[in-house]
Amino acid sequence: MADAVLTAAGVEDREAAIASRRRLISRIVIYGLLGLISIIYIVPFLVVFLNSFRTNEEIGQLGLISLPRSFRLDAWPTAWSDFCIGGQCDGVARYFWNSVAMVIPATIISTALGAINGYILSKWKFPGSEIVFGFMLLGVFMPGQIALLPWAFTLGQLGLANSVYGLILVHCIQGLSFTTLFFRNYYVSVPDDLLKAARIDGAGFWRIFWKIMIPLSPPIIIVTVIWQFTGIWNEYLFGVVLNSGSNQPITAALVALSMSGTSVRTYDVMSAAVLIGALPPLLVYFFGGKYFVRGLTQGAIK
Amino acid sequence: MASLTIRNLRKSFGMVEVLKGVDLEANTGEFIALVGPSGCGKSTLLAMIAGLETVTSGEIYIGDRLVNSVQPKDRDIAMVFQSYALYPTMTVRENMAFGMESRGVPKAEQEKTIARVAALLQIEPFLKRKPGQLSGGQRQRVAMGRALVRDPALFLFDEPLSNLDAKLRVDMRTEIKKLHQRIGKTTIYVTHDQVEAMTLASRIAVMHQGEVQQFADPDTVYNRPANTFVAGFMGSPSMNFIDAEITSTGGGPAVNFPLSGGNVASLPLHNGVADRAQSKKVILGIRPEHLSRQSASTSGKQGFATMSALVEVVEPTGAETMAVLKFGDREVVGRFSPDEAPRTGENMPLAVDMTRACLFDPATTRLI
Asked: How far apart are CA A254 and CA A158, in angstroms?
């Protein structure tokens, strides 16, 4: 009897050991794969990051991909304010500020309009509102280049050609499809009874919007702002086609920089310039990334 | 004086007519229950009274003011929703203050009103909490509190208890009744629960397929249901319906219906009801509690008829025992006190209280 119990215990131990070994192996495989993929993603960034601190001579001798032998910060101020782009030698600063001046109002306005559109299309439906929404949704699937010529024409007519204001307008309108979709889908899950109660309580269209909908909206506002900010900041096509010279955003300037006429490739300065250009979206991602994921997966009412 | 008058009210959504000419009236201080199965139009009717749905045709008066095209906020009403519809980002206090702020009630008065209502509903401890931090019963109280701060001409309740568990529902039902007795406001209360309607209302409007089937006090609705729908809907277990025929025997009129083995049950009728019947064929309606075991107290008593039936299933609930009996090939539910409860398989001698039985016209389903 005692033997039988012992044997049974032994069998259990053996099975437990096999199971735990299996678990260990699967863990190693999973983490190994995850690690590998992370490296594939992080290496290009690391190369650029390290190159911005190496001297150009060192990069010339040892190649682009190599651990740094030297360390200096010169490339950063040069890229910011001295480097020559398209014949002008005052760095990327001007273009950086162009992008800032474009992205902030464009993000705020397109998000605000998206919120109001979404509120109307989900809670104040009117005959044909589904059709209107359908047309707005079309914008989500329409590639930007289709709109290039109409925009060039429109901005010319409005007197906004080759100006940051023109780009603000373009990005507000181009972004409207996405921001409306985000807010509309989020607001659909807000119970209609809430609005009915508010109407009986004497609240109208705007009071319901400000006092009930907006306080429920932080998750989707964060999602939309991050989406719009990174999208507009990283946008290149409109910036390079609609604007020229000193009115271009930083994405366009970075391309101009890489094609600058000098025979010597200044990889150190270019690396620094690219990183300066990538900094704002990266910061947004670092500080807002987890809210982005949370906002996308969360409904309006917990 | 009437607080609410509804005349020939109709509502269509496209081709579908959900209200087909509703007439209703609530006197000041009355508690009216709108009861019916889902889809009967009761919630639509309430939403129209509140002004949340437009009127297709007909008239709604609150007091003596025609409110067909008056905004909800100007109708002098307050409403409690099934989902409570508390504003999730606001504290309980802010929830209660929201309507008063919209109407521009001075701050000092708001504070006073909230304090008074919070004391009445015993929700003072939660005033600073948000709805998400409250239990179902507490939310229910807050929802009522939000309605009570208004002091309206009309209270509207849309199935306010259906989201609560059974025990809490019974407690809150009593509380609502107490509250109504205390403040005496005219109340329109929508429910699909006939027990809620019976216990709370001073008058019940039973609705079915967009029409008011009967509008009367609970006693009448229960004991003299206008038609077989009302009779079947009110009361649980439902009234038993038996196809029967009126015959005249030596001792006066009776209803006959077949039993098993070629036997016929013949139950004598009273109160001249047989004379009102248009045809010989009728539907006999007997409530389960009007069946009892034959005993010394029932035998020979005026109005009791006797028969016997096979007991098929017995379902004791503690306080009473339900039994399924075979009347021929028809199943009939009886409700007995446990000490006279039948046994399965027994051929039970029954006493039927014929003074409480209802006869319906099979063609119109109306009460005879």
From this structure: 28
